[in-house]
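// run 5 | inverse folding | seed 20
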């Protein structure tokens, strides 16, 4: 059996996530910071698409294992994920947001936690932000933007991934609609939601069969995929 980087990463995070459904463990994993808690609560109360709590715990576990120098995030929203990754690492972060109101709120939140020297927010669409604005290499690329465009984001930015880097895709289950689409399970999804579920499923299948990457798919948060480059001897 070939042992690859993704399997090693999966093994390392297994004990960190196995008890995520345990209420006591969830209580221990709560983030005790007044400012970030307010940002989190603002996102939840205003239907801002921030990462789910279990997904965040996994994301920060990966950050602690990889120990990235640089992180690229596609989909800033109000800056919550970037702030949490910065607070749990020494990494510098580039993050891309296309909505003006989200961009402005993210800048404000980053200022509040004093991370303007480590987090740069780029206003623009992830499909066409100039690569010249970014670093040449990143150890983690976190995709959490328009779900229908995930493959475009992956293909656009994979050249910036370091040799032992990780690409993380959030919301690959999309509230259960992707599974229902895949297995023709009856749901209350609108036509547009079903179309989006189909596109996310297509992305997942593309990741699964991508010959250049090993990917694991986890039923944590709203579903997370973790991709690492295959080595030449795999």
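// decoded
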């Amino acid at each position: 059996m070939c042992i690859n980087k993704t399997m090693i990463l999966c093994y390392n995070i297994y004990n960190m996530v196995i008890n995520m459904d345990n209420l006591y463990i969830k209580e221990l994993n709560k983030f005790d910071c007044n400012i970030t808690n307010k940002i989190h609560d603002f996102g939840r109360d205003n239907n801002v698409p921030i990462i789910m709590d279990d997904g965040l715990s996994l994301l920060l576990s990966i950050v602690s294992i990889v120990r990235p120098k640089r992180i690229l995030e596609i989909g800033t929203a109000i800056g919550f994920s970037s702030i949490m990754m910065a607070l749990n690492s020494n990494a510098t972060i580039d993050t891309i947001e296309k909505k003006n109101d989200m961009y402005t709120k993210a800048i404000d939140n980053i200022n509040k936690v004093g991370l303007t020297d480590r987090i740069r927010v780029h206003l623009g669409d992830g499909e066409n932000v100039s690569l010249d604005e970014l670093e040449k290499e990143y150890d983690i690329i976190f995709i959490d933007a328009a779900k229908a465009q995930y493959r475009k984001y992956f293909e656009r930015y994979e050249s910036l991934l370091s040799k032992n880097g990780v690409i993380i895709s959030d919301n690959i289950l999309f509230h259960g609609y992707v599974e229902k689409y895949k297995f023709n399970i009856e749901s209350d999804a609108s036509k547009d939601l079903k179309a989006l579920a189909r596109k996310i499923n297509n992305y997942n299948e593309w990741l699964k069969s991508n010959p250049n990457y090993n990917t694991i798919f986890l039923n944590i948060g709203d579903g997370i995929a973790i991709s690492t480059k295959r080595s030449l001897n795999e």
